[in-house]
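Protein in question passed on here:
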Amino acid sequence: QDTEFWLSDGNLILVAGDTAFKVYKGLLAMQSTVFSDMLVAANPQASEVFDDHPVVRLSDSPQDLRHLLRILVPAKTLHVSEEQGYNFDQLFALVRLAHKYGIEDVEEQALTHLKLYFTCKFDVWETQKLRFTVEPAHGIGVVQLARLTNNLDMLPVALYTCARLGGSITEGWVREDGTVEHLTSQDLQRCIAGFGALRSDVFPTIFNATDFPPPPERLSNSMCLRELQFLRADEMTRICVASAGGLDTLHEDINRTLDGFAICAACRALFLRRHEIERARIWSRLPDMFGL
């Protein structure tokens, strides 16, 4: 018996794995047409019963079902609100099960959270304020969800996130219930090709960001130009080689690095603006890089 969802006055028992959940039949049927149709056949004469209550066995994990029931049979919050914090495992489970059981509002709300990061808009991605942590392996789950729900505009950032795993992408993503999710062979090929394209774009990104003359008021002094050349050849190459691509915000590292060079404030600001332009350029190329 589940310690959280074994309701004393419940009239339906759901079994997921080795865990039983006692809940309200009418409440589930009201929110899900799939549950409603499923429960029509779940009567004491035609189905397994326990303590005079119908039993329905599901193929879902107990962890996933528990996440869904916290939304459908809530103690406090009635929806996936922006104020309530969720981790990635919860959002993944909500999208997958809400899609499976036809609970469209829950599916859409959970996807809205995920799309704060896995978005097709660069300005949204730049200003994201997430209430959940995104790890590179989570990209594997988002690729699956994007294809499951036909939200294909999530794929470029999802595959980019996967590419940050490097060779460990073959190990997959270990979910909270211990199961391991992997990319399909086709998406794995896309990820490998995209990783190579991102690495190839690292050096053009740095050259484009540093290849500019000093502002007019500094033309009489060649110090900035020389320092920018040193920066291009040394420190920035080192920083970018450590990253899968140029999308990750490097401003904190860049500013620390710039402190070691005799570069004026105007050139520093110009470099940072050009760096942002380069990141936007890479963003626009993600679909092509990953064969989308």
Remarks:
- The mean pLDDT is 82.
